[in-house]
Amino acid sequence: MKQLLITVLTLGFFNASGQVKISGKISDNKNKSLSGASISLKNTYDGGTSDSTGGYFFITNEKGLQQLEFSITGYNSLLQNINIGLDAITLNISLKEQITELKAVVISAGAFEASDKNKGAVLSSLDIVTTPSANGDLTSAFKSLPGTQQVGESEGLFVRGGTATESKIYMDGNLVNNFFFTSTPGIATRGRFNPFLFKGTIFSTGGYSALYGQALSSALILESNDLPEKTQADISFSVVGAGGGIQHLAKDKKSSWGVSYNYANLWLAFNAIKQKQDYFQIPVAHQGDANFRIKTKNGGFLKYYGYLSSNRVGFRTSDIDSITLKNAFSINNINTYQNLNYKDRIGGGWKINTGISFSTNKDDLKNELQDEGNKKVTNSNEPLYQFKNFSLTNLAKYAQARFVLEKRIKGLTAIRFGSDYFYSNEQSIYTLYNGAKFADKITDHLYAGFAETDIYLTNNLAAKVGTRAEHSNIIDRWNIAPRVSLAYKLADNSQASFAYGIFYQNPERRLLPATNGIDYSKATHYIFQYTRQTKDFTFRTELFYKKYDDLYKTGRGNNGNFLAVNNDGFGEAKGIELFWRDKKTIKNVDYWFSYSYLDTKRDFLNYPKAIQPSFAAKHTAAFVFKRFVLPWKTGFNFSYNFATGRPYYNIAFDTTLGKFAIADEGRTISFNNVSFSVNYLPNLGKKDAKTFAVWVLGINNVLGQEQIFNYNYSNNGARKEAVTPPSKRFVFIGCFLSFGADRTQDAINNNL
Amino acid sequence: MKKLMFFSFVWMISFASFAQSEKFSAAMKKNLEAMDASFKSSTDLISMANNFERIANAEKNQWLPYYYAAFCQVNGGFIEQDKSKVDGIADKASTLIAKADLLSPNNSEISCLKSMIASCHMMVDPMQRWQEYGAESSSNLDVAIAQDPTNPRPYYLKGQSLKYTPEQFGGGCKTAKVALQTSLDKFTAFKPASELNPNWGKPQVENLMKECK
Hints:
The complex is a heterodimer. Chain A is mainly beta. Chain A folds into two domains: 2-95, Immunoglobulin-like (Sandwich); 111-751, Maltoporin, Chain A. By secondary structure, chain B is mostly helical. Chain B has two domains: 27-149, Alpha Horseshoe (Serine Threonine Protein Phosphatase 5, Tetratricopeptide repeat), CATH 1.25.40.10; 150-213, no CATH class. The chains are: A mainly beta, B mainly alpha. Chains A and B meet through β2, β3 and α5 of A and α1, α2, α4 and α6 of B.
């Protein structure tokens, strides 16, 4: 026993004096030395930190089998067993870099992101409302980015030689039909949704993910807000109407609900600013919406958004086929949209994102030929005039269900797959001057399945590979659309990306029912992108080539309308685009510049051959400049949009040739638009102010430059008339008041 | 003999545990003394943070070494020139302070540190991040004040943040001085629970007060 005690004490003595030095070098797997790594002898105080050359050393009194742990942020930790005897130990270690969102390359070919959080975003959420040429319209802000056309005569995004119907808009994964108010001839309508509903937007000008289909050109992906920060109420007044709403956050901050109502009436604006059209029904709209959002215990969300609107508009324009007659056109529209989305972690590393949406749209359109005294002309025997008295009722119902399952495999590498189901039921009743009715109903069931994988080989190299398959009843055939994106990081702030994909789309409603069996129209995208991005500077350029196949050609239907007859159309688009945004060179100034070169031709609809379409300009550029002057609590925004002239055609049926031919063509003058807006925030920074106000003054086309979008031809081709904006300038004055929440932080966030 | 053996064992065990806590406070003291000098560079601070973290991991049930490890990390983050590294440093500080929080819940000092970590994230890109991290930083200070109204540090952090906020947004020296003065008053009365407990900040407050004259 005594001996044991002595042994213990003796060992203790040796311990105290037997200091051993442990040293070495730490590097990454590319042999780059790592400084600041922690080296720790487990369960002891002993250890060290690597210096700037990656070298480390420390002295320990510990003996025997021990574990040495090496760790540094961004790398996988390493445990090394060592046996400490009497001799110094040298241990060189190499650590493997973790693949993290912070460091990894972003798969970005074709996509512009507006977000306040995500890496790679080029715009913030507020940019959408402070871009003066956009007039607070969500999609219009994207017209100051490359790839889009300055089309002013109709709504929607015309992307890279594509029509507006080739761009689809999604809210929380669900397709939004009738995103815009119903088209009126020659006037672009606005989007229905308030830009403040969304926390993030991805505008893809091509090469997008297999999760989205039925869009040949572009996908605009909107992500709705999560919970509001506080309960608050808003009221707004402007020259175009008034509105109010409330967002209520529950006490436990786990759920919220909100309702809002907006009334638009352009009486005041149209009296102050002379319109080209003679309005017998001033545009009036009632819009109401409601939402709730519930945060789940795993950080997921259940979100509901519902929308209901009714609007009316009616105006007279001079009839192009006569000297004195007029066309009186009117629309009554009722639209509803419901979207329920659930997104959550469901255990085992799986995530689910599922949703349903339901929408209805009813349009009552009417056109009347009127004389100088605004009386209906019914006594004409000329069919040309007779056919101008008609009415059209469209009644559409849409439903969608979708789910996406996602699993992270390792690091950022993930797989996801899912399915979409779209139902559409579109009825229309066309009533001729003589009361003859043509009614048709198109229903479609579209099933889609998709699978996609994100592969992160290293932080510098990533790929997204996916496939989408769709079956539409109208076409009654499956299509398979592969998509591939690659991204490679060239240096800390720069990367190159590539995207390839095939995209299919059904014919738009107005071309249906097709007279023969038809196939999907098809586009193939090739995109190469280079990006350099730091906190306050972004430069990117994209080269693209887009090939169109199987576009729809049209022929005359029973009641004289154009219907899809075959898939003999084709086309291509190629170009180069530049974008830069700079927040640093000029103090307190934020500006961006974008330029697009587009070379495109297509043969579709009734085109006699492949021609540059009338919605595509060769050169398009935009310049946006923003400055916030803190002492004045005022933001000044300026934008200039430019496009070279677009071609216009009179495509008419040539009776001698027996087919459509170009009877006349020309090119519009180039497009110039200078817009300006001022935002004044009087309560900015007032501590504990109960009200927060934003005053807005916006002037579109400040210089009153002449803008011609297109030309309309008379039926005999003898007369042509320029399609111009309804008024030279438009002036917006409005006031937005929030109660309860201090919006100062929004303002600082975006303007400091 | 048995008695002797028993006695030796008791003696050894009590010596061992006494030696252990002695070893802990000695190591903590040594590192706390060295800490002041490490504020020159972020590498020195990170190395200091690693020292505290080793102590924390070996001890497992002491909140103070985790607290100081996080404190050194976050200060390293504040002075790090390479902005791309800052989020990683702040995240590391967050994991450390979360461990301290488990060992010592409802601790005003820990809430102060959470506020500093949020500010550190914010400093990477104040324009874009104010909304999220600015709010998180200030709400943690409110919590810290509620948890211990005698703690001078939340007032110091509040004053500091106000000083660097433009006057138009409700900041500036005038409002900052009110908070800084409160902090100074509380420092006069403040007694740390032990010599190892947090007791930093008074010189910084005095400096800010001078700058605001």
